[in-house]
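[recover] target loaded
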């Protein structure tokens, strides 16, 4: 595009309205004094309007040449109307992403339930109520567009006539679609939602400018990428370790200084030992451990019934609880063969767990509960309130560890218990599986599966989740980061299995000091993410004849290499990327792309079988995939970050000689209470 063409786009001549010839009056009547006064008044009014219009023209309201960012040669001046649309467009997509994350709160606070309407009103508010503020917030972007377009010719970048027309046609189609969707004419939509004197020609001018900007940036980005070397990436990585080096760790936090798990965790020397503390704790714990799970699922016989201990206990509790009179409770106890007895705090027939519940401060008459201990389950109901160290109660006892399948008599089979424990250790990668081990991870016995599932659920909640911490250049003193990330960390990092406690005292909301005890276990030493990312592409074929369609596409790739090969996948609207991750793919496609036997420009056809159940839609498909290389994740991140840094610095240098002018003519409107107080739209 030659010099001056931008002005031809910005300042096209307006169509001239036809001049209407005035009819001359046949005669003139003498004016009355009243008519003279009216005319004089109108002349004054017209003079006043002229002054106002002149003022508005000078402050940019009517004057379309209020340039906010001046082009170096005038070819790409960005005027107020163009800037208004650019800001509106940016705000529209800001609203779009806001809705993606905060739609619930947006609906509640605004009453708007439609995403498109929210985006429109959010953008409208930004350019009609706070235009000056919005433009100032986007000033660097506005200057960037002008600066980049200014150097286009110097870089040998121009737009063809076809590219210019395409840019205009596409934005015209987009705006017409938005207008129609809102039951408005095109001009009505622009006036209502954008306003500020913006015309369709301003929007088209922006579209052309954006097209040129895109070509220049794409060229510059390609030049920067071509200059990347392994040495540059390694240096960028080492200069910014906080973005690349990380460690995984477990963290156990407690406010109990004498927490029994704390010394066991601090004594651990491996990740396996650290995790086993939690497995063993859950396995041994009365409330959620092995005994509880065992008795919940293993059937026992009481009378003619065969059910779990907890089923019987729960049934008895349901029968006696919530009774509020002596008569009703006496009747229920008789049916359950329970006898009322008076107990004292020093009664030797009661264990401590029972005493703690029966003699607690808030114990009340008719209170009932199911109480678990290591070898029994008790159902207890108080028939009186505890007084003077005595209380009347009825207690029914159920013995635990009695199973016809997994034990004999009233004893539990110790081998069964031991094998359950070993199964869990293997499950959590604490114990290495051996051929002679008896494990239950593949058991067909539903009772065994239920026991294991109950224990695994409890253990999953107990074992701390793996956390990731990136390198910290300036860690807080006496902290986990300070221990992990000293100045020599990258040379001699803290090893896997290292464990350390940190104590922190803070003031809570009640202005009381609380001390937290945290035990950290390093899962693995400082690392870089070496997982591979694939430079390649794939096209998905599904529906009827997908295998045939895939083969037809595959045949068109014969003899192609490099960019020509990749372009075929782009033209087919496939996924084309330099950073395809394994986790984002179907297993079959991942297995092919991430096969270490792949070579550059390998192309393959990958079939995915139907896994739909009977009556469901066939979900089989066929992929045609392209492999062009593999890059470690850290190196891909380093390249992207370095390239972005170079482009950012390039833009900063470009806009350093530009400024935002004409802002003195723009003022924010007074805030409005609602987004709908603008003048009514013009309907189509």
């Amino acid at each position: 595009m030659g010099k001056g063409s931008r002005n031809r786009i910005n300042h096209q001549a307006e169509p001239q309205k036809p001049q209407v010839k005035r009819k001359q009056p046949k005669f003139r009547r003498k004016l009355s004094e009243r008519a003279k006064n009216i005319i004089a008044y109108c002349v004054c009014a017209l003079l006043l309007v002229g002054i106002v219009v002149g003022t508005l023209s000078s402050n940019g309201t009517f004057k379309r040449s209020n340039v906010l960012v001046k082009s170096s040669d005038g070819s790409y001046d960005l005027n107020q109307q163009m800037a208004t649309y650019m800001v509106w467009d940016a705000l529209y997509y800001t609203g779009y992403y806001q809705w993606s994350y905060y739609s619930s709160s947006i609906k509640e606070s605004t009453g708007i339930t439609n995403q498109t309407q929210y985006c429109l009103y959010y953008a409208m508010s930004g350019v009609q109520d706070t235009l000056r503020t919005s433009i100032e917030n986007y000033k660097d972007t506005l200057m960037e567009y002008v600066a980049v377009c200014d150097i286009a010719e110097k870089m040998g970048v121009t737009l063809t006539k076809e590219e210019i027309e395409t840019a205009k046609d596409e934005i015209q189609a987009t705006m017409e679609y938005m207008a129609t969707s809102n039951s408005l004419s095109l001009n009505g939509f622009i006036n209502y939602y954008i306003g500020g004197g913006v015309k369709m020609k301003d929007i088209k001018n922006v579209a052309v400018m954006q097209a040129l900007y895109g070509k220049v940036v794409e060229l510059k980005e390609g030049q920067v990428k071509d200059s990347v070397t392994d040495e540059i990436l390694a240096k960028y990585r080492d200069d910014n370790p906080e973005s690349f080096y990380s460690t995984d760790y477990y963290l156990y936090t407690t406010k109990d200084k004498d927490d029994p798990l704390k010394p066991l965790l601090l004594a651990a020397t491996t990740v396996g030992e650290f995790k086993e503390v939690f497995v063993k704790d859950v396995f041994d714990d009365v409330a959620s451990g092995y005994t509880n799970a065992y008795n919940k699922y293993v059937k026992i016989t009481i009378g003619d019934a065969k059910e779990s201990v907890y089923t019987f206990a729960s049934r008895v509790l349901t029968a006696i609880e919530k009774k509020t009179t002596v008569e009703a409770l006496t009747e229920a106890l008789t049916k359950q063969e329970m006898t009322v007895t008076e107990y004292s705090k020093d009664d030797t027939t009661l264990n401590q767990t029972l005493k703690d519940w029966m003699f607690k401060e808030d114990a009340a008459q008719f209170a009932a509960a199911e109480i678990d201990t290591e070898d029994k389950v008790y159902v207890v109901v108080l028939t009186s309130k505890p007084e003077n160290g005595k209380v009347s109660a009825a207690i029914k006892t159920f013995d635990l560890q009695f199973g016809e399948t997994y034990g004999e008599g009233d004893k539990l089979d110790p081998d069964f218990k031991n094998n359950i424990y070993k199964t869990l250790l293997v499950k959590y990668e604490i114990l290495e599986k051996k051929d002679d081990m008896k494990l239950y991870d593949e058991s067909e016995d539903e009772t065994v599966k239920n026991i294991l599932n109950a224990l695994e659920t409890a253990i999953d909640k107990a074992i701390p989740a793996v956390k990731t911490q990136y390198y910290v250049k300036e860690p807080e003193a006496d902290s986990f980061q300070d221990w992990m990330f000293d100045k020599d960390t990258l040379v001699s990092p803290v090893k896997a299995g290292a464990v350390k406690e940190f104590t922190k005292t803070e003031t809570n909301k009640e202005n009381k000091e609380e001390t937290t005890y945290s035990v950290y276990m390093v899962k693995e030493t400082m690392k870089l993410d070496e997982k591979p990312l694939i430079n390649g592409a794939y096209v998905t074929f599904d529906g009827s004849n997908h295998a045939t369609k895939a083969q037809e596409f595959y045949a068109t790739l014969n003899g192609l290499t490099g960019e020509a090969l990749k372009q075929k996948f782009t033209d087919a609207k496939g996924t084309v990327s330099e950073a395809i991750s394994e986790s984002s793919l179907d297993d079959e496609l991942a297995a092919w792309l991430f096969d270490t036997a792949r070579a550059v420009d390998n192309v393959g056809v990958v079939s995915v079988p139907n896994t739909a159940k009977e009556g469901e839609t066939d979900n089989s498909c066929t992929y045609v995939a392209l492999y062009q290389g593999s890059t470690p994740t850290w190196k891909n991140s380093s390249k992207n970050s370095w390239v972005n840094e170079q482009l950012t610095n390039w833009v900063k240098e470009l806009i350093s000689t530009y400024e935002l002018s004409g802002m003195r003519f723009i003022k924010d409107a007074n805030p409005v209470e609602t987004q709908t107080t603008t003048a009514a739209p013009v309907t189509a």
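[recover] notes: The first strand starts at residue 67 and ends at 69.
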